[in-house]
Amino acid sequence: MRQTRRAYRVVATRGDDQETSAEPLNDGSASSRLDFLAKALIAAGAVGLGGGLAVALPRLAASAPSQDEDVEIFKFVLVLEYLQAAFYERAVSRGGLDGDLLEFAQVAAQHERAHVVFFENALGSETPERPTFDFGDRTRDADAFGAAAVALEDLVVSAYNGQGPNLTKAALAQAGRIVSVEARHAAWVRSIVGENPAPDATDEARSVAETKAAMEQFGGGQ
User: Fold this and answer.
1) Which has the minimum average pLDDT: 9-13, 68-72, 80-84?
2) What superfamily would CATH give domain 46-215?
3) Cα(166)–Cα(59) distance, rounded to whole angstroms?
4) Do the beta carbons of residue 129 and residue 1 sit within 8 Å?
5) What angle do CA 105, 14, 118 make, to 5 degrees?
6) What are the beta bridge partners of residue 19?
7) Where are the domains of the chain?
């Protein structure tokens, strides 16, 4: 039986060491949690895979931005954060990486875990189930990992870009602080594998359906 998750409000402090902590919220709705999170982040200036991959991505309505829509979009991007966190954690644990690629995977894994925690706290009891993933040799072989990491980071940036116009102003401020880090990941890993870190003047924006189709590239047999 699934445990009930308490909702928390993000509190950021400034100083020599920036810390982000969480405090319980009194309001039980995910919409209210998102509003509280946005206010806390803005006020504090906080910065915060083919065949058979079955991930239950939410269907997002074509409507004006609203807090209810924020919740559905946050559920959607949380699935992507679960995917990234699992990919990097598994690559680090399997010992096939070294040098710059290993450093990138370690740092990215830490960032993605933080992103997961943020969205889980924002969504509270509306957090979706964490999917399981099968990455095959992409977390064992350095060359395969590099190519997959480039594709994955590009995918995540384009998915965030696709949903940005559908978010309320407050939720967009939160997502913007995360997607900018994802873009840094994309440039970093491209540089490591010898690709142009910024090949285009603008980035693609993918819909939910396009993102789901692209996610089918990831995974495969053991």
Assistant:
1) 9-13
2) Ferritin, core subunit, four-helix bundle (1.20.1260.10)
3) 13
4) no
5) 45
6) 13
7) 46-215
